[in-house]
Amino acid sequence: MANIMKNNINYFILGMIVLFVFTANQVHAQNYQVTNLKELLETPENPNQVFSSSEIEEVEKLVYGSNATIFINNSGARTLGNGVPTVAVFDTINLQALQKSNPDFNSVRLLKLKVEDSEDLRRSIDLASLNEFSNLEYIFIQCAFNCNPAQLQNIFSNVEDVRILYMIATPK
Q: What pLDDT score was predicted for residue 5?
């Protein structure tokens, strides 16, 4: 009888540990969709698409248009082009530079992240810490290797009202 009671307690404790682990993982995980830009532009009428046709047009202009762009690195930020910058380009090595104060960051609508290899995906970006990017609507990840949405799903935390897109752009 004591042995059965001991086994029941062990199963209860094990069950509580498993429940705690799964609950902790769910709290930490972010639920956001990562959209393939190429597929989005090739099939804009897809009924499963979460982008409206005007949003698709806007994303295409931000990614491929001649927009004033801020190039961000650890030594600072440099703006190229005429007008108010609507795009900012950075890579994972320069994450700290996104935290620096720059009044031009307020007008940025698209952040373009260049990812060179899968090691870069181990870094984390808390969007809540990007206080200067008050008009941020889109993050575009340009992978220099064969990345996929599952790999990109865990890069960002505190994703609210920001759309995440990606494209594979392997050098030839």
A: 54
Strand segments (E) across 87-149: 87-91, 110-115, 125-126, 138-143
* 131-153 CB burial, b ≥16 within 10 A, e <16: ebbeebbbbbbbbeeebeeebbb
The amino acid that residue 20 corresponds to is F
My answer on whether 108 and 46 are in the same domain is: yes
> In this structure, are 114 and 100 located in the same domain?
yes
Check whether residue 51 and residue 13 sit in a common domain: no
Q: Give the SS3 label for residue 69.
A: strand
Query: Is 164's pLDDT higher than 80?
Result: yes
Q: Are residues 82 and 102 in the same domain?
A: yes
Q: What is the pLDDT of residues 143-157, one digit of tens each?
A: 999 888 888 888 888
pLDDT at 20 over 70: no
Residue 36, CA atoms < 13 Å, CB-side half-sphere:
13
Query: With a threshold of 0.90, does the pTM exceed it?
Result: no
Domain limits for position 24:
1-30
Number of domains, the chain: 2
Dump pLDDT digits (tens) for 90-106.
987 777 788 888 899 99
Q: Where are the alpha helices (DSSP H) in the chain?
A: 2-28, 37-42, 53-64, 149-152
Same domain for 159 and 100, yes or no, is: yes
Query: How many angstroms separate the most distant Cα atoms in the chain?
Result: 82
